[in-house]
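To: structure subgroup
Subject: Chain for Friday's discussion

All,

I'm putting the inputs and outputs inline so they're searchable in the archive.
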Amino acid sequence: MKLLFVVKDIDTEHLGIMMLSSLLKQAGHQVDVAEADLRKIYRKLRLGKYDIVAYSCTSPFFSFYLEINRKIKKDFNIFSIFGGPHPTLLPEIINHQSIDCICRGEGEYALLDLVEAMSSRQDFHDIENLWVKTERVVHKNNLRPLICNLDALPFPDRDLFYYNETVDRGKMHVLTTRGCLYDCSYCIHAFYDKLYNGQEKMLRRRSVDNVIKEIREVKEKADIRFIMFEDDLFTSSPEWLKEFSLQYKKYIKLKFFCYIRPDMVTASIIRELKEAGCASVSMGFESASERLRNDILKRNMSKKTMINAARLVKENNIRLKTTNIIGIPTSSLEDDIDTLKINIQCKVDYAGAKLLMPYPKTEAREFSEKINVLTDKNYELTQKSSPFSFKERKDKRARENLSKLFAITVEFPFLLSFTRKIIYSPLGLIYAYVNLLWDGYCSFSRLYPTDFKGFWAGARKHLRKFRD
C-alpha cells in the first residue's frame, strides 16, 4: 500500500507523522509526504498511484485541509483519513462528504491495522480508534488502550522530510514522553484524560537507553548540532533525569533545549540539566495575576514559585524563555502589563506572549461561552486576532498589539511607557514583523544556537510563517 501525508508547514519535522511512517515502512508499506499545494499534490498522485491520502490536523488548520481533500476526492479515487487533535476532539467531522475515515487518539497501530486490512482486502470497519464511513452508516469504534511501552515503537522516520531544504538539519527534535499530569484549562490534555478514563494522567516515558540510542543513530548520519526536547514535562522524574544526565554527557555531548514547569523546578534538577549540557529552557508564566493564572487557567502555582524557578535557571547560566497569555476573559489591560513586568523582573531572555485561544472541548472554551464573550465561535482560531469581546474595541486592538510587542519590551524595559501608547494604533502588521525579527534573533543567537547555516534555515522558516 502507498500512503501520502499532506502537510501545510512542510519546513517542520512532524514527529507524529514520522512515527506513523516508521511503523508503516517497517511493515513493508510505502509512505511519502507532500506540501499542501494542489499542484504538488496532484503531481505526486498522478505519478505515484497512492491508495490513501492522510492528514494530521489541529483545529486552526482543519478547514484548510478539508478544502484540499474535497478537491482531491473530486479528481482522484483515493481513500482519505484525518487524524490528530481535531478529529479526536470533534469526531463528527466524519460527516463531511469527502472524509472517509477519522482516527481518534494515538494513531500508530490503528493506521497500521487499516493499511494492513486494505492491502489484504479484508474488512476494516471495526478497527479500534477509527470511525469509518460507508454509504449507509458511520462505524464508530471504541478506543484502544494507550501505548504504555514507548520503547516498543520504532524511531521516527527522519528521512521523510529530509528532501526539503528549508528544514534546519542542524537541530534534532525528540520526544521522550506522552501524557500530562496537569489540567490547564486551555490545553486538550484534560479532555484526553476524560476520554481515556484517567489513563492520560499516567505519564508514559521512554527509557534513557532508548532516547540515547535514537540520538546517537541520527547523530552518526546527520550534522546534528543542537537537540530540542519537545516534552511538556521533561523534568517530571528526578530519577530519570539523573540517569539521563550521566548518559547524555557521556555519549551525546550536545547543547539542548527543554520545557520545564516552575513548580517542578528544584536546585538539584536545574543542576542536573546544566551538567548534561542544557543551554536553554522554556517555562510557562502565563499570567502575573493569581486569579487569572489559578482560577481561570488552572495553573495552580504561586507567583513566588515562578520567580524562584526563574532565579534558579538564571543562576545556573541557562537561557530562559517564558510563555505568557494575553487577553484572558475577565482580565484587564493592566493584568497583561503586570505579566510583562514580572518577565522584566525575572530578566527573561525571551518572553513569548500569545493571545488566549479557546480550542474545542477545553475548559477555557466552556468558560468563555458561559460568560458570553466568545465572538469567533468557529474552531479555526489563530493568533492573528483575539476571539473575545472586550468593553471597548480599542481594548481588543491593544491586547493584540501588546502580544506582538511583549517580547521586545521585556528586553528593553525603557520602552514600556512608549509601548503603552502605541498598542492602540492600527499598526499591527508592522508590530508582527518586529516580533518576528526579534523572535528569530533570540531563537538563533540565544535559545537554540547552531551556526550560520542553521540561522539561515531558521530565517527562511520564519519568513515563510510571516508570509502565511
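Points worth raising on Friday:
The longest strand covers residues 278-286.
The chain is about 45% helix and 15% strand.

D.
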